[in-house]
Amino acid sequence: MKTEFTGIHHTAFATHDIELTVKFWRDLLGMRLVYAYGSPGYRQYFFLVSGNNRISFFEWHDVEPVRPRRHGDPVKGSFIFDHIAIGVADKNALGEIMSRLDAAGFHCSDIIDHGCFLSIYSYDPNGIPIEFSCEVPGHDLFWNPVMKDLAATSGFLTEPNPVPGQWPKPEPVSEEERIIVPGEGKDFFPEIPDRTPQSTQTSAAEGAMQVHDVMHRGVYTTTENDTIRSVAETIASEKISGLPVVDDNNRLVGVISEKDILKALLPGYTQFLDDPAQALDFQAMESSYGGVLQKSVGELMSPSVISIEIDAPVMKAAAQMDLHGFRRIPVVDQDRRLAGIISLSDIHQAIFVRELEDAPDR
């Protein structure tokens, strides 16, 4: 089962001067300080980079700034970190950061063109090597990964997608085993009560239609070990756009859609990058479809699934679909076992029928 990552939650560095570090990251670069806590001998500050990605610093009084070295220069002996690269919107943003660093007396390189992205290089007051990078329009490594490792001895090493079977299959961790213990900073935050207590849910949903009243129960499903060919056959014969993926206990673990299958054709695009004349060989993309059919569902499925509880109000399901741009979502019970599927059409038809029944004769 694939894991859906949301970004780098935070990186953690160390400084002997938290005040100078705050002045650099917050006041010079403009990153908002979102969390600061400490006690005698222990302090940590978090700066927001973007979205929910942060960079943090411990204050250790005996630590010393590292000696400057060029980003990417090889070293001998024990080593764990080279540099941190922070993304920015475009080349104009790089120029803005260059001007700030120059004005504050920090070394900054010229803009370096790496082909698919542009970068500038500098150092923070602690000697940490920093890179600021922006993408070059037209070079999208998400859709078109580029593999140019001349030292690679096999295609396995440069396969863009996760290769299954390299590690033992993990066993699910039960709720009882997910033990949470208090850590540093826990005392600074009050316990957050359940935002939707049972009594509120009951009163708010009283009289409202629930998902189990209108959902479809006879749902076609697949498993992680099934082939994409079997999924494609079901999608074509039943005229549907995708299938829920369940485990041996019928628990929902993902979803596989036509979009997921077609997306798998696109990485093959990069094999033509050496020949610009064939760079848009869509016929070749189509011809790779046979290989995709041999893959397993677990290789291509989306593991992060938006679902709805079987006893939820139908309008909550509608809100979920509207929020995420879906027309249908799986329905699960309290143990995440698949119970059915509900669509916007199901909800609208049920509300419309009830309105007709409740409306006075005209």
Walk me through what this model shows:
- The chain is an alpha/beta fold.
- It has a domain at 197-358: CBS-domain.
- It is built from eleven helices and 13 strands.
- It has helices at residues 18-28, 91-104, 198-205, 211-214, 228-238, 258-263, 282-287, 289-293, 297-300, 314-324, 344-358; strands at residues 10-15, 33-39, 42-50, 53-59, 84-87, 112-113, 117-123, 129-135, 242-246, 252-257, 308-309, 328-332, 338-343.
- A four-stranded mixed β-sheet has the order 1-4-3-2, covered by helices on one side.
- The radius of gyration is 26 Å and the shape is globular.
- It starts with 9 loop residues before the first strand and ends with a helix.
- The model is unreliable at 194-204 and 267-274 (pLDDT under 50).
- Keywords: CBS domain.
* Inertia-based shape: globular
Q: What class do helices, strands and sheet pairing give?
A: alpha/beta
Helix content: 25-40%
CATH superfamily of the domain at 197-358: CBS-domain
